[in-house]
Amino acid sequence: MSGAWLVVGLGNPGAEYERTRHNVGQMVLDELASRTGGSSKRHRSGARVAEVRLGVLPGGAPGPRVVLAAPTSYMNVSGGPVAGLAKYFDVDLEHLVVVHDELDVPFGAVRLKRGGGEGGHNGLRSITKSLGGKDYARVRVGIGRPPGRQDPADFVLKEFSTTEKKDLPFLLADAADAVEELVVKGLEAAQQRFHAPA
């Protein structure tokens, strides 16, 4: 699988967390798997993985090989499984994409970047520490800020509101499109498409 991409969707294990804001990264991964027909299997690194081809290259050839991975550990110790997968599949930081919830992006928006800080996100902090570097791509799925004085730590562990749930499928589709654009056309092209004013 040398030359492959590793796309990691962050979240927490267990049914009680499955539909919470903090698990939106894994929801995007499920969307990508369903588009490609990829079926996931448990990997010894501590993740569910599906090996797929993502997108279509110019000329109609199948897109790059991609390992879709959802760590089965808790969010704040995601780094171990991600580092294990990167080593197993021989993926360098340039070909790693982490999909995660982002408080600093409004609900419904998707933003992409490479490197930078973790913004208090424990999953990203764990990954950066385990990999020994932060120069990997992030697809930041906007969940917005909590209302009033609600603690952000509580907010991310709650399910989306009734109104948000109606728009959630569109957000997941956009984030999946962003991952595909990033892998097939590169970060700059994906940023131009998803950062453009509506």
Q: Say what the CATH topology is.
A: Rossmann fold
Shape field: globular
Query: Major sheet: order of its strands?
Result: 2-3-4-1-5-7-6
Number of domains: 1
- Biggest beta-sheet profile: 7 strands, mixed
Low-confidence stretches: none
Broad CATH class: Alpha Beta
| Helical coverage, percent range | 25-40%
- In the CATH hierarchy, what is the superfamily? Peptidyl-tRNA hydrolase
Task: Estimate what percentage of residues fall within beta strands.
Answer: 15-25%
Order of helices and strands: EHEEEHEEHEHHH
Task: Give a structural overview.
The chain contains 6 helices and 7 strands. Helix 1 (about 25-35) crosses helix 5, helix 2 (about 80-90) packs across helix 3 and helix 5 (about 160-185) packs antiparallel against helix 6 (about 185-195). The chain has about 200 residues and is an alpha/beta fold. A hairpin with a 3-residue loop joins strand 2 (about 40-45) and strand 3. The chain has helices spanning about 25-35, 80-90, 120-130, 150-155, 160-185, 185-195; strands spanning about 5-10, 40-45, 45-55, 65-70, 95-100, 110-115, 135-140. The protein has a single domain, classed as Rossmann fold, CATH 3.40.50. The longest helix is centred in the C-terminal third of the chain and has 24 residues, at about 160-185. About 40% of the residues are buried. It has a 7-stranded mixed sheet with strand order 2-3-4-1-5-7-6, with helices on both faces. The N and C termini lie far apart (about 40 Å).
